[in-house]
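Recall from the previous lesson that a structure prediction takes nothing but the amino acid sequence as input. Here we apply that procedure to 4Fe-4S dicluster domain-containing protein from Mesorhizobium caraganae. The sequence below is the only information supplied.
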Amino acid sequence: MRGIADEIAAALSANGLILRGCVTFAEGEEAPSGLSGASAKSAILVGQAGAEPWPHFLRWRERQPQAIANPLDTWSRQVIGAVAETFGARAVSPSDRPYLPFQQWAMQAEGLKPSPLGILMHPKYGLWHAYRGALLFEDEIGVEASQASIHLCDTCVEKPCMKSCPADAYSTEGFAYQSCLAHVRGATGSPCRTGGCLDRNACPYGTAYRYPPDVQAFHMAAFAR
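The prediction returns the following C-alpha cells.
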C-alpha cells in the first residue's frame, strides 16, 4: 500500500498540501468510521508546511461568493474531499462535530509535542504548520513512520514565546482566551491583527516557514470575528 501513499502525496501537492503521517488503529481500539461505515484502520493526516497552499487557496477564493463562511475550511474540505473520492477514503476535518482527536493523531503520527502556545512544535517547521484534514481508510496504509526527534521547546531557555504578548495571553497556567481576544479587537491590537500573534512570531524555530503577514492577518481576522 506504500504506492497509494505516494500517489496521495502527489495528488495533495497539486494544491500545496502534504501528507503529514499516518495513524493505524489497533484491533479493538475505538476508531472513526470509514467510507462504508465500518471502522477505519488507518488515518492519513493532511496538512501544510509554511504557507504553500496559500496561492492555491487565493485562486479558488476569487471564484467564490464574498460572503462565504469559513473559506479556508471550505477550500480544504473540497480539496481533501476530492482526493478522498479518488482513493476510496472518507475525508474528515478538524472542525467536524463531534470533534475528532486530530492533535492526538498528529502527536502519534509525527512524534510531536505541544509548545507552550499549544501549537505542536515541529523539528523542521517550528510553529508554522497546520493540519487541514485526514483520509480515513478501512485498510492499513503503509506510510513511513517519523523518526523520534528532540522537542525543541526543551532546548529553548529564554522562552520568548511567553514574553512577547502585550496582553500576557500565554502563561504556565494556560491560554487567557478572553484577554487575547479583547486585545486583538482593541485599539492596541493592530500589530497582532496585521502581522499575527507576537508570541508565535517570537519563536526562533522554523522561521523559514513563517507565514507571510497577509496569511497571518487572515487567520487573526478569523480569530477576532
